[in-house]
Amino acid sequence: MNRGGSMMKKMCLYTGMIFVFLLMAMGVWAASPDTTGPIKIGFMGNMSSPSSLSSKGAATMAVDEINKAGGIQGRQVKLVIEDTKGEIPKCVESYKKLIMNDRVLAIIIAEKVEMGVAGMEIGAELFSEYPHLFFSTVGSGDDIWHRVRDNYKKYRFGFQTYYYISTNFLKIWAPENTDVFKKQVKTNNVAIVYEDMEWTKPLRKGLPNVSPSLAGVYKEKGVNVVYETTISLDQKMFNPIFEEIAKSNAGIIDCVVGYIDQSAFIKQWSQSSARHIPMLIWGGLAGMPPAWKMTEGKVNGVMVGSSMVKVAITPKTLPFMENLVKNYKVGPIFGSHTTYDTIYGFKKAIEKAGGTGSVDKLIKQLEQVEEVAVLGTIGWNAKYHYNLPHPKYLTPVVQWQKGEMKVIYPAQYKNADYISPTDLRK
Q: Per CATH, the architecture of 166-306+396-424 is what?
């Protein structure tokens, strides 16, 4: 009887060991976040894209700074980088690898929102077995935070960090623009030029039960929309548009663009009948230092939303820009600030949560965190997970004046007054 009992015990032990092995092989036991080793962050981007490269440099800088200062709660941070090549299948493959093989705690996707959405969907499938966090740090489209809004339980792990989301372009940026139109340019008549992309759709068409279109917002604010058109990304000839605008009685050209051939666009504006009409560009090349050389100085007088200005919005602003260029050899273009600030917000949440043992605790802390950032304050809306907008997080309006970008808005950061393009050309 004793020998039989001993055999039975051995069989139970062997069965238990096999069961444990199978659980580990399937990843069930391995799913809990590591609470002792390095804190791993996955970074994904298109490494042929300037914004992804700049964001990678910013992420590397943040991790280097944190590790030099002792890590997060004494643990070092490790950045694992994947090149998506701008392809959705590669994005999905990389996301799976980072979560299932590299066992990262968080993933940053620093490219257009469509890539973020692809990652977020596969992340939702993996989340129950592999709890983790996801951050989209490039792209203003609403598709990321709409998923959190529509199904919080499924997508609660996802957060969006960008200068503006499309909804806040309508609710915040558009009213701010009317201040620039009326108080700086002294006009109530605007011509709007959109680029044909997903991020401009809500601006062109409005959001049901949320906001009218951009033109509708302007009208509500007492600005007359005298001309409106949409251009394609591959368009190269803009003269006909500028000639139509010149006849429209517009006092300013509002360019809802970021990805068109801005060099050609600006050069053709400067030589058209509309060259005396001030122009505001929402982002892109015009807000970067190379724009002066690339447009042969024709950008003189153009206003643009730019995060590349050397104005101390917080104590972090200037050191961030200087260190990124000097030590990481990339310029602080769009996506770099949001990526850098996201990592510091993530660090603060871990500290507040008391560690990485519970991803749900980290989510709750991310919903509450507010931390000094490069462009203001980093934090996220507790309900929808988009980052806290203006005036918490700022994108200054600058004007090109004689080869330099000068801040003309908001007033507390301005270092120059607006000057008309005509006067600047004298």
A: 3-Layer(aba) Sandwich (3.40)
